[in-house]
Design goal:
The protein is an alpha/beta fold. Strands 3-2-1-4-5-6-11 form a seven-stranded parallel beta sheet, with helices on both faces. The protein has a two-stranded parallel ribbon with strand order 7-10. The protein has a two-stranded parallel sheet with strand order 8-13. β5, α4 and β6 form a beta-alpha-beta unit. α7 packs across α9. The chain is globular, with a radius of gyration of 19 Å. The mean pLDDT is 94.
Length: 316
């Protein structure tokens, strides 16, 4: 059994955060979940509310937070284009001011802090698959820049605190993740395709469907985060966190149609600005340093995610 810790999870009622909170509680830790509920939902953590080791606070990380904890996982920031483009200025503030406030708290307490970074720091990559030493190809003034550059700035802040204050930081670059607790309207491809398939409406494919993504089931992703936080202090990352399996949008759509038995047809729309043509993580570092690699296949993960959305639509 691990020593019990009091762990702060910002963005803890969001998709990833809620799964992380559940995992930490299952290991016997106390969890302080902080969220402003912009893209998170109380329903994601409702089943945790009766646990006496779980505490939920409504708070926006762009404002300072004064609590006593042993570790911080900074997940606070909308991650889907629909949400982060809704208020791009607030997205940048969440990435930058939120990182400053959480780093300040970690510095005061001298505790480890994990930053949920993203594969978006690579932009529309010219190197494939992407390794951690690739510096990316990002449009600094495009529609996606509020998130892409916000996360890049947050990484810079984390390593500045590491160099200047010797702060024990951990940075994970998260690639496309999916599973239960995703929002049905978040604009991400898996939730879009599943909802459209279950409702037998046209499945929207942007471009010609040849662009690729790699999809990691949420339980695998959380395992990688836990392992990174538990790694030696000198190992900071950044570490790619994702499944190296690569699929075209057409392949994804066909798999979801098969699993749902949907009668939906495919509808092709113009490709959005700065939408990456390909995205696939090189996870050699995670394998070698953390002994981690994903276990759940895309088909297995999609079956669980489809079941979640089927229940959601029935109860709506």
């Amino acid at each position: 059994m691990f020593p019990r810790k009091r762990v702060l999870v910002t963005g803890g009622s969001g998709f990833l955060g809620s799964h992380l909170c559940s995992r930490l509680l299952s290991e016997g830790h106390e969890v302080l979940c902080v969220d402003n509920f912009f893209s998170g939902s109380r329903s994601n953590v409702e089943e945790l509310m009766d646990n006496r080791r779980f505490e939920l606070i409504r708070h926006d990380v762009t404002f300072p937070l004064f609590v006593e904890v042993d570790e911080i996982y900074n997940l606070a920031c909308p991650a889907s284009p629909v949400h982060y483009q809704h208020d791009p200025v607030q997205t940048i503030k969440t990435c930058v001011h939120g990182a400053i406030n959480m780093l300040g708290l970690a510095k005061r307490l001298n505790i480890p802090i994990f930053q949920a970074s993203t594969s978006e720091v690579y932009g529309d990559p010219e190197v494939h698959p992407q390794t951690e030493d690739y510096r990316g190809c990002v449009n600094p003034i495009g529609l996606r820049s509020c998130y892409d550059e916000g996360k890049r700035c947050a990484e810079a802040l984390f390593f500045a605190y590491r160099r200047q204050h010797k702060l024990p930081v951990k940075v994970g670059r998260i690639f496309n993740t999916y599973g239960p607790h995703m929002l049905p309207n978040d604009g991400r491809v898996i939730s879009n395709f599943i909802i459209q398939a279950l409702q037998n409406v046209p499945i929207t494919i942007y471009g010609d469907g040849s662009q690729t993504r790699s999809f990691c089931y949420v339980d695998d992703l959380v395992e990688c985060m836990i392992r990174l936080m538990a790694s030696p202090a000198e190992f900071t990352g950044p570490v790619n966190m994702g499944n190296p399996g690569e699929f075209t949008m057409l392949e994804l759509a066909e798999t979801i149609l098969d699993l749902t038995g949907s009668k939906s047809r495919l509808s092709f729309e113009p490709l959005p600005e700065d939408d990456p043509r390909q995205r696939r993580p090189d996870i050699s570092l995670a394998r070698n340093a953390l002994g981690w690699e994903p276990k759940v296949t895309l088909r297995e993960g999609l079956e669980k995610t489809i079941a979640y959305f089927e229940t959601m639509l029935r109860e709506a």
